[in-house]
Write a structure and sequence with these properties.
282 residues; mainly alpha; 2 domains; 45% helix; 10% strand; elongated; DUF2225 domain-containing protein; DUF2225
Length: 282
């Protein structure tokens, strides 16, 4: 017996089997497409053209700069080189005027006195032959050319030792990135890779020499780095060039510093262990 039994007596017998409440409609099973991952940004998507006014010749121009807010950092090398996904930041650190060839790391570009501008015009602008390029991104060859100009400008304008050391450090990072990109190819040019490694070593040696001198003669911060960061960087470079006594002393300073955070202290301890391992292999 159902709740509608007896409807037959009312001439509605065909309705005795009605359901009081409607069954919810079942949605047709549809195969949902798999979620599509958003496309990874390419190098050209991670840079933009920034406007500059040259402090030497007053020309207006644009240079390609990395969008730091969009680039995804993957980690860093022992010597503080930051690694990003799909872009080498070192390629976009030098700003160069395409008119007079004044070039510098972006943090130093506007810091030019009238005396320095005169030296650059006399010794660089009058004789330089610039390569014209208008690609979407800077190639490693183009970036290397820009670094060369930044370094020669620094020498000509008699820049601080720290600025020249910083150019050398970042140039070394650029060369390392270039070598890494070549190794990813199917048939890498081993001779070119070896040459890049030699150049990287030379630039790091000059960075080590320059920062060592700057630490003793310049006021902190140096290139935006405090004492702890400079000491840590110098210890990394000292280990590279087998100056273990210097490295050990600098690392001890970092470890015992009240201003150093736990992360850099842990790195310093790891490097002390690295020194012991390298010395034990002698």
């Amino acid at each position: 017996m159902g709740i509608f039994s007896g409807l037959k007596n009312l001439g509605l017998g065909n309705m005795e089997g009605l359901n009081l409440f409607e069954e919810p409609k079942k949605e047709e099973s549809r195969s949902k497409p798999a979620p599509v991952a958003p496309p990874k940004p390419q190098e050209k998507d991670l840079i933009y053209d920034r406007s500059f006014v040259c402090p030497v010749c007053d020309s207006s121009f644009t240079a390609k700069i990395m969008k730091t807010s969009k680039a995804r950092m993957l980690g860093s090398d022992q010597d503080l080189r930051a690694r990003y996904e799909n872009i080498d930041a070192a390629k976009y650190e030098v700003v160069m005027c395409p008119v007079c060839a004044y070039a510098a790391l972006i943090r130093y570009f506007t810091n030019v006195t009238s005396a320095q501008a005169k030296l650059i015009k006399e010794k660089i602008s009058q004789t330089v032959h610039l390569t014209a390029y208008d690609e979407e991104t800077y190639s490693y060859e183009q970036a290397m050319e820009r670094y060369k100009l930044a370094l020669v400008n620094a020498v000509v304008k008699r820049a601080k030792t720290s600025e020249k050391a910083y150019i050398c450090l970042r140039n070394a990072w650029l060369l390392r990135g270039y070598g890494e990109s070549l190794r990813e190819k199917e048939n890498p040019d081993t001779k070119l890779i070896e040459d890049l490694e030699k150049q990287e070593n030379e630039f790091l040696e000059n960075a080590y020499r320059g920062f060592t001198e700057a630490r003793q003669s310049e006021m902190f911060p140096i290139c935006g780095m405090n004492t702890i960061t400079i000491d840590y960087l110098l210890s990394v470079l000292a280990i590279r060039f087998k100056e273990y006594d210097v490295a050990t002393k600098l690392l001890s300073t970092v470890i015992t510093s009240s201003g150093a955070n736990a992360r850099i202290k842990d790195k310093a301890r790891e490097m002390k262990e690295q020194i012991l391992r390298e010395q034990s292999r002698k």
